[in-house]
Specification:
The chain contains twelve helices and no strands. The chain is an all-alpha fold.
Amino acid sequence: MRPAPSLLLFTVLSGIGFGTLALAALARASPSVWAAGYALALAGLVASTFHLAHPLRARFAFRRLRTSWLSREAWGAVAALALLMPVALADLAGGPRPIFWGMAGGLACLGTVISTAMIYGQLRAVPRWHHWSTPALFPGFAAAGGALIAMPGPWAAALCVALSAGLAASFVSGDRHVARCALTTGRVTGLARFGRVRSFEPPSTGPTWLTREIVTGRPRSRVLRGLAVLLAGVAPAAVLILAPGAVPLAGALHLAGAFVARWLFFAEARHVAGLFHGVPLAPAPKAALKPAPAARG
């Protein structure tokens, strides 16, 4: 799929922002931590509206709370920002913290990040997203990024290392999951039992929104995957351990890794609609690409 810049900014910035706010709710935080959390969360939410053809219609996202993960995300974001405001003001004033508001706001932050993940994780038509890694990595990035801002130190380094391990595992497990699905045109149409199903003509005679946004997929890139694993967690953890004072550098490295990983999240995803355009969900095995040996007479 085409990685839209607005979605990259939204998912990365809001994730780190709500992760920062959730951790700030656990213990007294400085004004800079609260400012960073709110700024990142709001910047991400504003960026999400630019993915809409009519940004003013974003208000309609609040209408389907019972059935839509998008609606749950919208309500969760508003609730988190509102519930944590008294906690932030208490920290700024140096007064007693309202524990209930902090706990409720932290849970709302977690619910918002999980809802964002499930917007993609629920889609069976995109096998790479319909996988355990989607609801696991979104909170993982939020926790690691938030820890680098709210509580830089050994715990943040440990979360970053865990994030890199989970990200590397998701690449391997995701490839195997897509390969095991073995989805073909016959399977997705339910006609495989009648024989081999093939398209006798393309669905469209030229580029369309579907081919530009949904069907187009990028091949796997080991270089970018390795860069994402390195920058998202390994490098920031090394900086925190070897140079504890270089927290901004650790945060910048993590942010770069988060953008690379999220770009791959969208770019490597392939929708089953691509099968009708001749785009397979998974690359052909290397063995299948080798020419068959000539028969000996």
